[in-house]
Design brief:
alpha+beta, four-stranded antiparallel sheet, three-stranded antiparallel sheet, globular
């Protein structure tokens, strides 16, 4: 099963150095029954893209809590055994947790398929979105517009061998 783990650049550096994402439990995003119902598509590529975007939103939340981190959303795509990623049935109808899964333990970076990251030109919008996230959560429409501005930026695909270059 492909899962998408939200990170920050310092989190990616730590995972790269340790050789694993973890320790567990890890929060990730995947094509779950709730995501299938929410997205209303049978196209697996579209569903995986939706899961990736949910992870990108979670990465933005991590950035909001880490003001020292560079303002780039990071998502690592990893392959885990089907039973390793479990959706919480009690949160299945919670709009904020659609596609969310938990992985009990650390995941070796050798299982990473790719890294998705913002381009440098997204930094200003991602920074503004991270700063506006709290107000957007409280219902501020202007702040929601700012958060949506970060979502307008597509994450770029990087091979795992390119992680050292991403870390600079």
């Amino acid at each position: 099963m492909r899962v998408y783990v939200p990170l920050t650049l310092p989190g990616l550096a730590q995972a790269h150095k340790a050789g694993e994402l973890g320790p567990g439990p890890l929060t990730a995003y995947a094509v779950t029954p709730a995501l299938r119902e929410w997205y209303v598509s049978d196209d697996i590529e579209e569903l995986e893209y939706a899961a990736l975007n949910r992870a990108a939103a979670a990465s933005l939340r991590l950035l909001a809590g880490a003001p020292e981190a560079p303002r780039r959303r990071i998502v690592v795509a990893v392959d885990v055994a089907d039973g390793a990623a479990v959706a919480d049935p009690d949160r299945g109808l919670d709009a904020d947790s659609i596609g969310e899964v938990r992985i009990a333990g650390a995941v070796p970076m050798a299982r990473a398929a790719a890294v998705h990251a913002d381009a440098d030109d997204a930094e200003a919008d991602v920074s503004a979105a991270a700063a506006a996230l709290g107000a957007a959560d409280r219902g501020d429409d202007d702040a929601r517009f700012v958060v949506d501005g970060a979502e307008d930026h597509e994450l770029l695909w990087f091979g795992v061998q390119e992680i050292p270059g991403l870390l600079g």
